[in-house]
C-alpha cells in the first residue's frame, strides 16, 4: 500500500514523465530500510528521515532522467556512488540499464552488494577500486553510454575520473548542488585533453526543500588519449566537495 510519502514521490515523478510501478516502489522502500539500518554501523548518509531520503536521494538521483533520454541508454557507470546515488535509483526506475558502480571504499561496495541482492537487481556490477585505475582496463575504458558522478569532486578531477569511462558519442553527467560555472571554467583544459565537450548545464530546484541543483552534461568526442587516466595522485589536485 502506498502511503503519503510514496504517493508524493510517484506524483512528482509522473509530472516529469516517469512512471513507477507498485513493485518498483517496494524496491525503493526496501532500499530506504536497508540504508537506515546499515547507516547505524557505517557512515553512508547524513540524511535518514524517510521523506528526506525520498526527496534528497531518490528523487534527486532520478532528476537525471528529466534531462537525458535514459530509456535509450544501455550501459551506465556511476563513479563514486557511495550509498548508491544516483546509480541504484536509476537502476530501479529503468531496470533495462546495465549498471556498473565503481567506489574506492570497500564497505560501501559491500553495502551495495547487499542492496542489489535484497532488491533482486539484475545486471549490476560492483567494483571496489579507484576510478583512475579501473578506467585503464577493457571493457571499462571508453566503454559506457552514460557515466555519472554525484557529489564526488570538482569538475577538473571529475573529468579525469569519468571521461575515460565514457564511450565516444556517449555522455558524462556531473550532478552538482551549487552553481558549477566557476568549476567548469577552471576545468576547461582537462575537458579538452580528455576529449569532452560541454553540451549543457541544466539548472533546477529540488521540490519541497527548494535547493538548487545543476546537471552538467558533457559529450565525449574522441577516444581517451593513451596517457589517461593518470596514476592516482597524478591527477590535478582538487578539493573534494
Ligand atoms: C561524497 S561521496 C558521494 C556519494 C554519492 N555519489 C552521493 O551522491 O551520495 C563520494 C564517494 O566517492 C568515492 N570516491 C572518492 N574518490 C574516488 C576514486 N578515485 N575512485 C572511486 N571512488 C571514489 C568515495 O569512496 C565516496 O563513496
UniProtKB/TrEMBL annotation:
Query: Sorted alphabetically, which InterPro entries does this protein's record hold?
Result: rRNA_ssu_MeTfrase_G, SAM-dependent_MTases_sf
**Coiled-coil stretches:** none
Where does it localize? Answer: Cytoplasm
Query: Which Gene Ontology terms of cellular component type are present?
Result: cytosol
Q: Which Gene3D superfamilies match?
A: Vaccinia Virus protein VP39 (3.40.50.150)
**Family affiliation:** Belongs to the methyltransferase superfamily. RNA methyltransferase RsmG family.
Protein name, entry field: Ribosomal RNA small subunit methyltransferase G
The coding gene here is: rsmG
